[in-house]
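Reviewers of the previous submission asked for a worked example of the structure-prediction workflow described in the proposal, so we include one complete record here. The input consisted solely of the amino acid sequence. No template or homolog information was supplied to the procedure at any stage.
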Amino acid sequence: MKITDGEKLILLMLSELYDTLDVDGEIEPDFIRSAIYSDKTWSIPWKYSGIPFENQETPGIVKEVLDILDMWSFIEYSYGELNDEDRAYVEKEASPFGKDPKFRGFDGNNETDYMGTASFIVNQLDRFEEFKGRNFNSHLPSVDSYRRMLTVFNKMRNNFYLDSLSAEQLVQILKEKVHPENR
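From that input alone, the workflow returned the following structure tokens.
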């Protein structure tokens, strides 16, 4: 959603009025403020999908973060469904990334747009609630490894319907965290 600077100011002033007058409406002033201050105005039509906003293109970084969160949701769920023997297999074959694989977020120093977008999607838009309450700062570059993992994950997903990933599929995906030059 493209909002001019003047419109941002008006929305922020209206949000303050909502709070001052203790208005109990469908629009959440805290969310509007958060979307404006964090430059995530694309999220307003997502939050209020009942309002007929003009069609807009979802920013590329948002699409990519959604794909990454979706992949990690599958990974964590699938790992949780494995029996002990399969978990041991994943741990050994995808070492050092196979032991209880979890989405760790993005690098807070160099991938702040990704980190902020993931946090906003989870904590403000209430999507991928299994990641709620996590610190999205991995403290190390992650985007490139997630992209490699997504390539493998998407091939699996596109070839057939996925209910959950097998131990072998988890190993294939998790091994992509290792940079090709280090294999």
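The chain has a mean pLDDT of 95. We consider this example representative of the routine output the project will generate in years two and three.
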